[in-house]
């Protein structure tokens, strides 16, 4: 994802009429100067979006740690008039940058004394501004929810786990997987959540005394329950409560000695740093790169050096040293054995992951479970979306832990009416997280024409609450069921919806389960399509994406794949705009650029069809480029769910289930559940930074029912970003850019609102 950040900084810099330089090989290049510091143009960063690693290189630099080294670096920058630095790296690189900034005026004075620069230069270049972006696969930097590269590393880990699962299942093996993370257990924890691992070892949360016994008991219980596969994930920095290392070899020996299971160790190593960046990382890095340039433009000598970062779904700016200090606090807490504190310092997202993992991985014995005598039904509604199964698994397991009897409904509302409903147990949902599509089966049918039959089924099976996982149809379905409460008492129960649709068109939530997987599919396909044209003459591809009337996939796909234009329904366009786009592409093709990419949402305009746009571009581009078209179709709904969707589905669904338990307690009177208020039919959505429960009745005013989209959509603010990165002259609305905030130490109370 670093290249996406580099590209965004260069293009946004040029857009604001700045000169932009590359410094190759990290601080080493800054100290060495010469050819390592080069002015760059628009084309310099063409076609680097899909490349892993970084095109400008990176190096650990001993000389920059000395004052002489920094003096040399300052001299090299002043010669070129550079006073704004954008640093992409981990906490070491960022701390170094901050020190450099603090010493800057002293360094210039010294250079002037030595006669290397004149007094004028000292005045002219008196201040150095610094903005940091955190590139680190460990996600070990406090203050930011996700660092650049973390999501791609999770993709690599999950690909390996999915592959190992098939072989381990055939052979009844136990696998011990070692993942990166010397001081931070984020990768281990999230991949354990995403693949339903049996046990995880992380530095922040060492196992209790006697963990060897409990782990072996758990592994053998799983075998006894006919689970053919055990997966144990170990972070390379894992420790026990006496601060002694727990290695993957040690875990393997333990399993072999105590249980005699056939056990294998796989150390993932540097595979995790490689490969092509995920869609999430490209979009994250592009957003951060643009934000970094804005932060540099607004920086003054008085403002502290800042990092641009992501909180929930929002760009924020945080003082660099506050983040670094807090990151160091975590390490200190771990060294001193204050592990509860360490987890809290890691932030809300980490804490939520840990709590969810604890909830879902350990099945309590029947004697330990509370008995509530409530029956809760789970169903999928709408088109299939990757991650639905992870959500069902989390709902079932949390429900059982809370003491309810869980029921699964097959084939949505239609299956419900036909009585396709059965009790589902803890073991039934094992191994579901990595499965694509919908195992329960899903239909688009709405409940209105089956109300009587569904009410009968609710009565027969004594269903006290409903959890619906699905897209826009699920939302409509809940509206219909709540409207039918006057006629049928059976529907007077708590109902909650968890949004799952590739289109991401559900009101009340910025994200839905399945959209990230679809976005990765689109991005991968666009990469391949672009590659297919390398070496041929100039070519433009017109690609049609799904999404109904919602332009999310087309717009974000365009941002992640580096497209030249994205046509969407939400932003009306006419023939003049089409013509301008064609001319713009023609101009671009006259430079060194060989390939163009245009995305079109399937319903963006009934007359300007994909064929029409293809024919228009073909005709107008004659002699300059030729055209090809692709309709991506249903491949966007398939595939194994991405780490983000597994994780999001798991966490949001667990939270929804806890809400159901709370509502059941509140509405249970005189031996029965009776809930007929608006706030007992809710949609759980991600809004900016928090997960919020919103009554579906209140969301009605926010919905365009004709086109099945929310009236206001957050991602439309990213439209100008895509245009700037594709070299259009457009105005960028800065009102949403982050103001400098402070690193908030969240209180335990706040942790309940939850961040993904």
From TrEMBL:
<dbReference type="GO" id="GO:0070095">
    <property type="term" value="F:fructose-6-phosphate binding"/>
</dbReference>
<keyword id="KW-0324">Glycolysis</keyword>
<dbReference type="GO" id="GO:0005524">
    <property type="term" value="F:ATP binding"/>
</dbReference>
<dbReference type="InterPro" id="IPR009161">
    <property type="entry name" value="6-Pfructokinase_euk"/>
</dbReference>
<keyword id="KW-0460">Magnesium</keyword>
<keyword id="KW-0418">Kinase</keyword>
<protein>
    <recommendedName>
        <fullName>6-phosphofructokinase type C</fullName>
    </recommendedName>
</protein>
<dbReference type="InterPro" id="IPR041914">
    <property type="entry name" value="PFK_vert-type"/>
</dbReference>
<dbReference type="GO" id="GO:0006002">
    <property type="term" value="P:fructose 6-phosphate metabolic process"/>
</dbReference>
<keyword id="KW-0325">Glycoprotein</keyword>
<dbReference type="InterPro" id="IPR035966">
    <property type="entry name" value="PKF_sf"/>
</dbReference>
<keyword id="KW-0547">Nucleotide-binding</keyword>
<dbReference type="GO" id="GO:0005945">
    <property type="term" value="C:6-phosphofructokinase complex"/>
</dbReference>
<feature type="domain" description="Phosphofructokinase">
    <location>
        <begin position="375"/>
        <end position="660"/>
    </location>
</feature>
<dbReference type="GO" id="GO:0016208">
    <property type="term" value="F:AMP binding"/>
</dbReference>
<dbReference type="InterPro" id="IPR015912">
    <property type="entry name" value="Phosphofructokinase_CS"/>
</dbReference>
<keyword id="KW-0963">Cytoplasm</keyword>
<dbReference type="GO" id="GO:0048029">
    <property type="term" value="F:monosaccharide binding"/>
</dbReference>
<keyword id="KW-0067">ATP-binding</keyword>
<dbReference type="GO" id="GO:0030388">
    <property type="term" value="P:fructose 1,6-bisphosphate metabolic process"/>
</dbReference>
<dbReference type="GO" id="GO:0042802">
    <property type="term" value="F:identical protein binding"/>
</dbReference>
<dbReference type="GO" id="GO:0046872">
    <property type="term" value="F:metal ion binding"/>
</dbReference>
<keyword id="KW-0808">Transferase</keyword>
<keyword id="KW-0007">Acetylation</keyword>
<comment type="pathway">
    <text>Carbohydrate degradation; glycolysis; D-glyceraldehyde 3-phosphate and glycerone phosphate from D-glucose: step 3/4.</text>
</comment>
<dbReference type="Pfam" id="PF00365">
    <property type="entry name" value="PFK"/>
</dbReference>
<feature type="domain" description="Phosphofructokinase">
    <location>
        <begin position="1"/>
        <end position="295"/>
    </location>
</feature>
<keyword id="KW-0597">Phosphoprotein</keyword>
<dbReference type="GO" id="GO:0003872">
    <property type="term" value="F:6-phosphofructokinase activity"/>
</dbReference>
<keyword id="KW-0479">Metal-binding</keyword>
<dbReference type="GO" id="GO:0016020">
    <property type="term" value="C:membrane"/>
</dbReference>
<dbReference type="InterPro" id="IPR022953">
    <property type="entry name" value="ATP_PFK"/>
</dbReference>
<dbReference type="InterPro" id="IPR000023">
    <property type="entry name" value="Phosphofructokinase_dom"/>
</dbReference>
<dbReference type="GO" id="GO:0061621">
    <property type="term" value="P:canonical glycolysis"/>
</dbReference>
<keyword id="KW-0021">Allosteric enzyme</keyword>
């Amino acid at each position: 994802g670093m290249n996406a950040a580099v590209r965004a900084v260069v293009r946004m810099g040029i857009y604001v009429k700045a000169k932009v330089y590359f410094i190759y090989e990290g601080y080493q290049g800054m100290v060495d100067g010469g050819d390592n510091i080069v002015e760059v143009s628009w084309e310099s960063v063409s076609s680097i979006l899909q490349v892993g690693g970084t095109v400008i290189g990176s190096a650990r630099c001993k000389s920059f740690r000395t004052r002489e080294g920094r003096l040399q670096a300052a001299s090299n920058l002043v010669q070129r008039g550079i006073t704004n630095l954008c640093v992409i790296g981990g906490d070491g690189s960022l701390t170094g940058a901050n020190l450099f900034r603090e010493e800057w005026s002293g360094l210039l004075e010294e250079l002037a004394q030595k006669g290397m620069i004149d007094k004028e230069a000292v005045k002219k270049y008196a201040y150095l501004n610094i903005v940091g972006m955190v590139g680190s696969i460990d996600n070990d930097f406090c203050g930011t929810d996700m660092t650049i590269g973390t999501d791609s590393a999770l993709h690599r880990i999950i690909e390996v786990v999915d592959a190992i699962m098939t072989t381990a299942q055939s052979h009844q093996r136990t696998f011990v997987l070692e993942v990166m993370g010397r001081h931070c257990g984020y990768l281990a924890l999230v991949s354990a959540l995403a693949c339903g691992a049996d046990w995880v070892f992380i530095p922040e949360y060492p196992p209790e005394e006697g963990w060897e016994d409990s782990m072996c008991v758990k592994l053998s219980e799983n075998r006894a329950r006919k689970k053919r596969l055990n997966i144990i994930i170990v972070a390379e920095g894992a420790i026990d409560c006496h601060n002694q290392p727990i290695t993957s070899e040690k875990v393997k020996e333990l399993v072999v000695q105590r249980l005699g299971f056939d056990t294998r160790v796989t150390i993932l190593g540097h595979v995790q740093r490689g490969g092509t960046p995920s869609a999430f990382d490209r979009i994250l890095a592009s957003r951060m790169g643009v934000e970094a340039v804005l932060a540099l433009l607004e920086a003054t000598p008085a403002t502290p050096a800042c990092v641009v970062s992501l909180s929930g779904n929002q760009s924020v700016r945080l003082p660099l040293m506050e983040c670094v200090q807090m990151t160091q606090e975590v390490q200190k807490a771990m060294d001193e054995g204050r592990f509860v504190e360490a987890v809290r310092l890691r932030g809300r997202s980490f804490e939520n992951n840990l709590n969810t993992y604890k909830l879902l991985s350990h099945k309590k014995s029947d004697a330990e479970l509370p008995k509530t005598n409530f029956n809760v039904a789970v169903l999928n509604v709408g088109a299939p979306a990757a991650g639905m199964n992870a959500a069902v698994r989390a709902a079932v397991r949390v429900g059982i832990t809370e003491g309810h009897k869980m029921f699964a409904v097959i084939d949505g509302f239609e299956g419900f009416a036909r009585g396709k409903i059965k009790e589902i147990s803890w073991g039934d949902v094992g191994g579901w997280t990595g499965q694509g599509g919908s195992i329960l089966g899903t239909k688009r049918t709405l409940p209105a024409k089956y109300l009587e039959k569904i009410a009968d089924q609710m009565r027969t099976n004594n269903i006290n609450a409903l959890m619906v996982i699905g897209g826009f149809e699920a939302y409509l379905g809940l509206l219909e069921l709540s409207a039918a409460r006057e006629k049928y008492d059976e529907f007077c129960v708590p109902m909650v919806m968890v949004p799952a649709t590739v289109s991401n068109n559900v009101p009340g939530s910025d994200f839905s389960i399945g959209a990230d997987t679809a976005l990765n599919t689109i991005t991968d396909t666009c990469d391949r399509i672009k590659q297919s044209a390398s070496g041929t003459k100039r070519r433009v591809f017109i690609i049609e994406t799904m999404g109904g009337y919602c332009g999310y996939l087309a717009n974000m796909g365009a941002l992640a794949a580096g497209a030249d234009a994205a046509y969407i329904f939400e932003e009306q366009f006419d023939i003049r705009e089409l013509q301008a786009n064609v001319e713009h592409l023609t101009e671009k093709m006259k430079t060194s650029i060989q390939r163009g990419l245009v995305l079109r949402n399937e319903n963006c305009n009934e007359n300007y069809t994909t064929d029409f746009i293809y024919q228009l571009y073909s005709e107008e581009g004659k002699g300059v480029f030729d055209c090809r078209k692709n309709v991506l179709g249903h491949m966007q709904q398939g595939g194994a769910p991405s780490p983000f969707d597994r994780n999001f589905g798991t966490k949001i669904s667990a939270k929804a289930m806890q809400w159901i338990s709370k509502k059941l307690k509140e509405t249970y009177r005189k031996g029965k559940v009776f809930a007929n208020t608006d706030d007992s039919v809710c949609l759980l959505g991600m809004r900016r930074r928090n997960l919020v429960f919103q009554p579906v009745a209140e969301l009605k005013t926010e919905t365009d029912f004709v086109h099945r989209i929310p009236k206001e959509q957050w991602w439309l603010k990213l439209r100008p970003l895509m245009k700037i990165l594709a070299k259009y002259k457009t105005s960028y609305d800065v009102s949403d850019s982050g103001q400098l905030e402070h690193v908030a130490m969240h209180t335990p109370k706040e942790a309940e609102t939850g961040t993904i």
